[in-house]
Amino acid sequence: MRIVLVGPPGAGKGTQAVRLSEELRIPHISTGDLFRANISQQTELGKLAKSYMDAGNLVPDEVTIAMAEDRMGQPDAENGFLLDGFPRNVSQAEALDELLENENVTLDAVLDLEVPEDEVVKRIAGRRTCRNKSEHVFHVTYSPPKKEGVCDVCGGELYQRDDDSEGTVRKRLEVYHTQTEPIIDYYKAQGLVVTISALGPVDEITQRALGALKRDEDAK
User: Fold this and answer.
1) Where does the record place the Adenylate kinase active site lid domain (predicted)?
2) pLDDT-based confidence at 148, cuts 50/70/90?
3) CA distance 177 to 169
4) Which listed residue (133, 161, 171, 215) is catalytic?
C-alpha cells in the first residue's frame, strides 16, 4: 500500500505511522527522518537543506521533494510506503502525484487523523519534559509524575518547553489549517481520503485505522 498520513500537530501521527508501517510491512518515510539522514550523511541535498536551515529559512519545496523522491526510490519502498509529514502543502501533493505517475503507480489512501482543536492544545500544552533527560516526558493529565514538577526516573525538574506552550501550539495549528489542511480537499477530489477519529487508546486508534484502510481497499 502507498499511504499518506495527515492530521494536525498532536494527532499522534508519529506513533501511528510506526505502528501502521509495522502492521502493513511498508517503510515509514518521515520528513524529519529524511532531513536528519541527509544532513548527517552530508549528501548534496542535506548540505543544501542545512544551508537554508542555518540561515533561519524554510527549506524550499523542491529540496524536500527531491529527498522524498530519492527515499521512495529505494528497494524497500518498491511495494509501498507510508508518508508522514510529506506532502505538507498542495504544491508538494501535486509534485508527489507527478513523481508517482512517472513510476506508473498511484496512492492507495490518504489517512486523515481527526482530532478536535481543543484536544490538540490539551495534548501538547500538557507535556512536561525533564531538564536532565529530554527523553523523559510526562503529561499533566495523561501520564502525570508521582510528584508534581519532578521526574519519576531521575528526579530532575520538569518544565514546559517553549514549543509546547499554548500560544505556540495555536500558531502551529494556524499554519496547519493554512498550509496542510487544503491537501485533504485536494485528495478528497481524487477519492483517496479515509478519515478516522484519533481519540482514545493508542492500540484502539491503530486498529481503527487498519480497519478503515481495509474497508477502503475492499471497496475499490
Assistant:
1) 127-163
2) very high
3) 12
4) 161
Count how many residues are written for the chain.
220
Task: Please state the domain extents for the chain.
Answer: 2-219
pTM attached to this predicted model: 0.89
Is the CATH code 3.40.50.300 the one for domain 2-219?
yes
Q: What is the pLDDT of residue 99?
A: 93
Binding-site residue positions = 10-15, 31, 36, 57-59, 85-88, 92, 127, 137-138, 161, 172, 200
Q: Which of 2, 19, 123, 127 is catalytic?
A: 127
* Cell output for 197: 477519529
Q: Would you call 80 helix, strand, or coil by DSSP?
A: coil
Binding-site annotation: residue ranges for AMP: 31, 36, 57-59, 85-88, 92, 161, 172
88 in catalytic set: yes
133 — pLDDT class (breaks 50, 70, 90):
confident
